[in-house]
Amino acid sequence: MGSTVVPNDIVLFNYPSSPFGRRIQWYLQLRAIEYALVEQPVMMPRTDLEKLGVKYRRIPILAIGRDVYLDTRLILRTLEKKFPDGKLGSDKPEQQFIEKLLDKYMVEGPVFQQTAGLVPSAFLKDPSFAKDRKGFLGRNWTPDELDEGRPESLVFVRNLFDLLETTILADGRNWVLGTERPSLADIQAIWPVDWATSMNMPSHVVSEELFPKVYAWISRFQHALKDAAASCSEPVPLNGDEAVSYMKTFKESQQATAEDVVDKHDPQEVERGTLVEMYPSDWGSEHRDAGRLVALARDEVTIMAEGALGLRIHAPRTGFKMTAVEKNAAKGGTKL
Ligand SMILES: N[C@@H](CCC(=O)N[C@@H](CS)C(=O)NCC(=O)O)C(=O)O
């Protein structure tokens, strides 16, 4: 693709209003890791991803070279591993425990769904958005349902603010783990409350007066992001075709790497080279990526995706399903 430069070989597929996407953009910004951005539409179809042969329909998606990572939990883990100098995660097991629990609770639990319950019902009055999200959720999501569910969502979100206000931020610390600057734990805890403050919450339920420490923390975090932005470049904008051409340049390096290990003792007992499908187990499960299994670890599954690009797609195992679609390679399936 000529002279377009992809900093650090990183291409992020995101749309700006995605609260999950912000987790990754914030992380990259706080660490001044430069990257290329292929902005995605809020609704399907996402033709750039179709060209890449990625079926997963959630946002964001991050590619490093020809490796595509699904889900912000895995994306953050991967960036921490690939760029260890100046990582945002702690080295102390006790703090890692807090980071991991935050990541699990905020992403795997009901937090997203309940906070999304605060979205103004006007959004769903746009028939194309309502239809698109019906395709995602597998059922109708109506303005009436949103309005009816809002009190329950407010109760949930207020409890989330309360949890942060009365526990980890109660002693007046600046950052969740008492660090000098925002850390991974801040990113993992802040995104739903930051998102919620952009919605219309009645001030007698959630407000700066009721939760001053949480609001002050969000404002500090926004300042830290601004400071970080001043010392790093904007993401390099790419279009889908440029991203595809770029990723093709990695095609020759398709051999297995030292990290490609299929755990022999894995409870699912799927052999390397078996044709499998992987997909999220909550929503959008009909969008399945298929390919040959190349690696299987405790919390990561990697396939060599079907399709001309030879992409390796990685997904976490918690919150995802991986199912064999043919006999195990070792028991008569195709060897990789
Ligand atoms: N567990 C996923 C959740 C991603 C997610 O649900 N993203 C939302 C956008 S914030 C989404 O994909 N919505 C449906 C869509 O955009 O098609 C992650 O951590 O990345």
TrEMBL record:
Species in which this protein is naturally found: Paraphaeosphaeria sporulosa
Pfam families recorded: DUF7962, GST_N_3
UniProt xrefs under PROSITE patterns: GST_NTER (PS50404)
Name of this protein: GST N-terminal domain-containing protein
CDD domains referenced in this protein's UniProt entry, alphabetically: GST_C_family, GST_N_family
Segments passing through the bilayer: none
Source organism superkingdom: Eukaryota
GST N-terminal domain segment(s): 8-87
